[in-house]
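A further point concerns the way the authors explain their paired sequence and structure data. Each protein is reduced to its one-letter sequence and a matching series of backbone shape codes. An entry of this sort, consisting of the sequence and the corresponding backbone structure tokens, reads as follows:
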Amino acid sequence: MDLAPRRPRSAWRWSIWFSRTPFATVFILLFLRLLTAGAGPFTYRSSPPGGPTFVSGAPDEGAVTVLRRRGQLAVVSPGTEVTSDTVLGAAWYSYRSRSAVSHPLASRTVQGITVSGTGIAPAEVPQVQSLYVQFAAARPERFWRETAGTLAPVASNGGVVISELPFDIRKVVRSILTLFLVGLLVHSLAWLIVTLRTLGRMLEERLAWLALTPAQREARRRARLLGSGRCPRCRYSINGLRENRCPECGERWTAAEFIPPRYAPLIRSGRCPRCRHDITGLRDTRCPQCGTAW
């Protein structure tokens, strides 16, 4: 006798087993939801990734107050105005990012400085935008210093800076991960196929059972018990008996009623154990299709 201990299942075999369970399907669906949230083929963002935010979570647009101080245009942080200043309006950083029309994996980013206020003349807008760039470059946050370098040509480009990437690496990686997770999702649905197959078999057996007459049902019940090694009357174990008689209750049966255990599941479902021919309602113990006896 081999007394060597059984080797435990490796982590790889456990992962294969887990990947075919309903839990894996739920986890993969959650990951897909997180991965594709707000990242469809034509996405739109109104705040830059990694941009500063307020305590409430709203994006910090870097708004400033545009005023005239001692006859000169100036931009200051909101709330730092003095009584001698003349407030003209406001300016803030604008960001728009969306998928480019040329290709779903391409991205188009528009950055600019929005200037608003009735006291600002159209000819003064480029000067206000230049002042905003200088104000952003002087802020201590790294984000605004880098943004100021990007917005440097804003005043000479109609107030916006447009950049388009032919292949956004983030979208490429997201698309690859999405395809990988979809493949895992299809792989994890193996449990659903097995479940549907089992339910279909149970429904088929139930319908076949309902189609039988009371005498046929009784014959099936006796055959099932005899095939499992039990007396059809008292369910006493009859394994090893040399006669077709129960020593407990005296119930007798014929050899034709006995179904070998290896044939019992198929015969109970109304199929020949060899050729799977339909034997529902058959009174003989021999298949009319292939001649197999049981």
In short: The radius of gyration is 40 Å.
